[in-house]
Amino acid sequence: MEYLYKNKYSVFQLGELAEILKAKKNIPSKSVILTFDDGYRSFLNSAKDILKSYGFKATIFIPTGKIGSVNDWDEGAKDDINIMSWDEIRFLSVHGFSFHSHTVNHVELPSLSDPDIMDELERSKQTLESALNQREHFFCYPCSKFNEHLKYLVKEAGYTCACTSMPGKNDKTTDLFLLKRIEVEKDDTIARFIYKIHYNRFFGKT
Ligand SMILES: [Zn+2]
Prior knowledge:
By secondary structure, this protein is of the alpha/beta class. It contains seven helices and eight strands, in the order αβαββαβαβαβαββα. Helix 6 (148-156) links the parallel strand 6 and strand 7. The site of zinc ion has 5 residues, from loops.
């Protein structure tokens, strides 16, 4: 965050990116959007203060059925498995952090029937809408599992855009429902982080 701040990167919100892409305009250089998946409590305990100290906003994609519970979908998850509670989410929402859908149950959507997919998409959207009074809705595909039909259903369910984990930068040709991201991992060094954001590439695992 210090690197982004000192190098004069602008932190945008997803809604702003959607407007730019809909208007087929170029995305300003040195612009980033900060997203966090799953809604772990560590966001509240550490990321929040760092982001606030630089005045950066962020979007958190949360599975609404796991709020106040734990990550029980990933057997490999060891530490850091607690998901934020509604009180914590409401607190963060009034401090510049927005919460959007990562389904209800953090399921791999392509394996579900269409009615079950729509239930995951609509119920998570409605839950966040009524709890946080949000008018605009963004989506993040769990485990980056998506296909053309699913993309269509996400649009049908009323979302403005959707994030994948496909590595890379977005430009004016990017599909709003297939936004790419650059994954930053907890053991990334600053050199590795700079390499990722400049060269849009990953070392090894993507
Ligand atoms: Zn996830």
